[in-house]
Amino acid sequence: MIHLGIFAKTFERNTSAKLADAIALAGYECTQFNMASIGLETLPASLDHYRLSAVRRDFEASRVAIPVISGTYNMIAPDPKVVEQGRNGFRLLAEAGKSLGYSTITLCTGTRNAEDKWKYHPDNAGEEAWRDFRSELDWLIQIAESCDVTLGVEPEPSNVISSPEAARRLLDEVGSDRVKIVFDPFNLVDWSTRDHASETLLRAYDLLADATSIIHAQDMRNDGKPCAPGAGFINFERLLNLFLRGGFSGPIIAHGFAESEAASTAKFLRDLLPTTKAAP
């Protein structure tokens, strides 16, 4: 069954109970969690499992599930110490999955840019970057198998997996059920060719739908900036209909907008998902 969710970082609350209540009251059934939402780093150096269990109880009390968590680090950073530190943090998240209830950890496939893991570098397209990414991914697959979690790979223009074609190549090479796709239309279209956005997303769907486990609902304005679904030029009705007809049953996670738009965004998306009912 499809569940409608939102990035936990959309809300700023000083307790996990208030955070869970805010998500539920805005009309969402689940969340993509981030350790930053409880005052930690996205990939913390240590975790208190008793505290995480308390967080899970707070979310269960509000009937908000936590199917996925952000575990992003620069997987091909020029400094190997940065990569190793990220991998160690990822391992902690994988081990904490049962405490919070999530089964998927999202990744940043990485960039050669040493300053920002979300910024482009021309060397990202080279075979050396690809080899380094594959080597690091192999480590994460081992961790995922030992902790029974799934890896969520999202094609992003600034990273080594920069396109649907690169993601398809990865899926075909790896051949592991531990590697799934996070389909975010914002990162698959180019604002300069926005008139062809629907055709671009259809091609991406054809390449990646069979491996997509999460949809990120993030729209794009005419200037290329992110906005709430329904406020930009991406045709979410057509896109979600494709996935529904294809049997998609994972979470749809909204993000890219302010808390003030959370409730209206939930309503917009829910109206496109007639089989989804709001949590009581």
TrEMBL record:
Q: Which organism is it from?
A: Rhizobium meliloti
Q: Which Pfam families match?
A: AP_endonuc_2 (PF01261)
Q: What is this protein called?
A: TIM barrel protein
Q: Where is each Xylose isomerase-like TIM barrel domain found?
A: 21-271
Checking InterPro entries in the record gives: IolE/XylAMocC-like, Xyl_isomerase-like_sf, Xyl_isomerase-like_TIM-brl
